[in-house]
Amino acid sequence: MAGINITSVNRQVKDISQEIYAAKLQRDEVQSKSVNKDESSGLQNAVADKLSDKSNINTAFSDTAATLSISALGAEELEKVRDSWNNHPVSALYEKDIPVSKNAEGVYKIGGASFNDEELSAARDLITGIGSQLKNGYLSYRDYAKMEVAQKVVDNRAYEGFNDDQAKAISKAMKDYNNNLIRTQERMLANKKTKTNDDPESGKYFGIEVHVPNEVRKSTNEYASTDIATNRDLIANIRDNIRNTDISDKNAVNKLMASYEDMMRPAYNAQYPDVLKANLDDTLSKDISDFLKLIEYADKLVR
């Protein structure tokens, strides 16, 4: 145990998860049976006694037990423990108001990856920059598609400019960011008076209508139709299609956009049954333009 500051361990080892503890409990008990009961192995015996006491797991995590059990850790377990110290969640890569501190080795540990000041700044700029192009509110099919394009863009840039561990943390942070957008919509709808859109055509794709307060209502309709995407199969198909496309390949992107048009045309036709075909084409063109702008934005962001 040379070189390990036991005082520091006492303070920080409480962050060890009980999962790590449980995983090594059985091994420690087996090892304890082979320990000679003499004075020279007193420390090991104390560890064995403490860890074999299943009657009170919390007691085994007292300061004394922590000091003893750390002595029994192998190199692999010790590394896991050290990795857990000051390990911030991936949300620290996009929520800049979260306090982030360096660990004893002088780096920021986020999502299991180590970042220095420059790398942390670059990772945050990538995620928040792309995230700023996404809608925080009611989500249309276009918005779900943009979220998946954003994920692809961030993944590509992360693996180009960061090491593997950092790229995994950045990718997870973008996924977390997108999931937060979905949760935001859920909270918004939970606080609104809504009803089901029972129109046989548009209700297949846009199944929610939101109550319109009297002071802002411009018609006699108490509820207004929305562009909130509600067809889960269509959302999944759009996102899967983007997820399985190499957006660095222009031909693949062109095929993707053609596929998106084919999937969305029935939905837009149902939403606006009386719209001219030219207007529908303009709507689809705007969607595609937004996707391409997001890719172009990312190219400028990393230069």
Describe this structure in words.
The radius of gyration is 27 Å and the shape is globular. The chain has helices at 6-12, 18-33, 42-51, 57-60, 63-72, 75-84, 117-131, 141-161, 164-190, 232-243, 250-271, 277-301, and strands spanning 87-88, 108-110, 113-115, 194-196, 208-211, 223-225. The two termini are 46 Å apart. 59% of the residues lie in helices and 6% in strands. Helix 7 packs antiparallel against helix 12 (277-301). A hairpin with a 2-residue loop joins strand 2 (108-110) and strand 3. Mean pLDDT is 80; it is low at 1-26, 30-44 and 50-68. It is built from 12 helices and 6 strands. The chain has a 3-stranded mixed beta sheet with strand order 1-2-3. By secondary structure, it is mainly alpha-helical.
Helix content: 55-70%
The low-pLDDT segments are 1-26, 30-44, 50-68
Global morphology: globular
Beta-strand fraction estimate: 5-15%
Major sheet strand order: 1-2-3
Number of alpha- plus pi-helical segments:
12
Distance between the termini: 46 Å
User: Which structural category do the helix and sheet elements fall into?
Assistant: mainly alpha
Q: Mind telling me the C-alpha Rg? A: 27 Å
Helix-strand sequence:
HHHHHHEEEHHHEEEHHH
Average pLDDT confidence is 80
Biggest sheet record: 3 strands, mixed
